[in-house]
Specification:
Distance between the termini: 113 Å
CATH architecture: 3-Layer(aba) Sandwich
Strand order of the largest sheet: 2-1-11-10-9
Number of domains: 1
Number of strands: 11
Helix content: 25-40%
CATH superfamily: DD-peptidase/beta-lactamase superfamily
Largest sheet: 5 strands, antiparallel
Order of helices and strands: HHHEEEHEEHHHEHHEEEEEH
Shape: globular
Radius of gyration: 31 Å
Number of helices: 10
Length: 327
């Protein structure tokens, strides 16, 4: 065989091999292969244990936990270390647990913020703008209200009460005549006028643990807030859409009980920071009476709602607990 023929045969064979090599993956892909067993990681092959995923750090104890308020027993077995239920019309105390303990009150603060705004009779249709000053630098809480968001004073108040928007509450105080210092002073003067002798405010949102009160004082606050139709209406709205920039943003009430048909709630406010635990105050019609409920320092995300339900069942006769426990 000549050298040229030998070279052509060798080259043709090489072409067939290359063609087969390129065709193999496409062919293999067209055949349904059985599911392969996932190979062990190199760490396991080598007998090395994977590092365990670190657990989240436990929540810091509340002030009530630190001073032992949760050690107190009560017939309803509430998760709140402080509770007070009283008849709004007669002032009869139906249930009390550590009612004089002074604790941080978180966003329950916003009820006083609302009272000061309502009594100042400032234009509710005036546009207020969220600024960098309204951003929470103490707790780092998030907000749907970006810097530059413009809403009316009534819309800001609505979001502060219903959705517990901290930037909205801070903006309300900042736009008060005289600014934030004058607003906080008005909050404390109103507390004094109401006889809230164990209450002190340092800012309008409740993010500071130095905003403190007790259940007895907060019952006075709820009673006063209930006089304002605006506060009753805005605090009990189940949800609302607000125009934030160029889009409509949905906000929901932080108190799920306003969407519960078993409750007739006239006014409400929730609150939470780590130092305060979960907090809730309400004015509600229960068992044919207009009642004020105060729950502070509840342990657990949904425990304040569970405590409110225990109280409701007890009041309507569904729980066998002696009436009027005093702790």
């Amino acid at each position: 065989m000549s050298r040229n023929k030998t070279y052509r045969c060798w080259l043709g064979g090489l072409s067939l091999v290359v063609a087969a090599a390129w065709a193999l993956p496409a062919e293999a892909a067209s055949v349904k292969q059985p599911r392969a067993v996932k190979a062990a990681s190199p760490a396991f092959k080598a007998g090395v244990k994977r590092p365990l995923r670190q657990r989240a750090a436990p929540a810091a104890p509340s002030m009530g936990q630190k001073i032992g308020l949760h050690d107190a027993d009560d017939p309803l077995e509430l998760r709140s270390s402080v509770a007070l239920v009283l008849d709004q019309d007669t002032n009869e105390v139906l249930f009390a647990k550590n009612p004089e303990a002074v604790l941080p009150i978180a966003s329950i603060t916003k009820l006083m913020t609302a009272i000061v705004i309502a009594e100042a009779q400032l234009p509710l249709d005036e546009t207020l703008t969220i600024s960098a000053e309204d951003v929470d630098t103490e707790k780092g809480s998030r907000s749907k209200l970006r810097v530059g968001t413009a809403l009316t004073r009534e819309e800001m108040l609505h979001l502060a009460l219903m959705a517990s928007e901290n930037r909205a509450a801070h903006a309300l105080g900042r736009h008060y005549p005289g600014g934030l210092p004058a607003f906080v002073d008005a909050m404390n003067r109103k507390a004094d006028a109401l006889g809230m002798t164990n209450t002190h405010y340092v800012e309008p949102t409740g993010l500071s643990s130095r905003n403190q009160s007790n259940a007895s004082d907060l019952a006075l606050l709820v009673r006063e807030a209930d006089k304002h139709e605006l506060i009753r209406r805005l605090s009990t709205t189940p949800d609302a859409a607000m125009a934030v920039g160029h889009r409509a943003v949905q906000f929901r009430n932080t108190n799920g009980l306003v969407r519960n048909g078993q409750w007739d709630i006239g006014l409400q406010k929730t609150g939470y920071i780590a130092e305060a635990g979960r907090c809730l105050v309400m004015q509600a019609q229960l068992a044919g009476r207009k009642l004020i409920l105060v729950l502070l320092d509840s342990a657990g995300k949904y425990s304040r709602i569970g405590d409110a339900e225990r109280i409701r069942r007890w009041l309507v006769g569904g729980a066998s607990v002696a009436a009027g426990p005093q702790i």
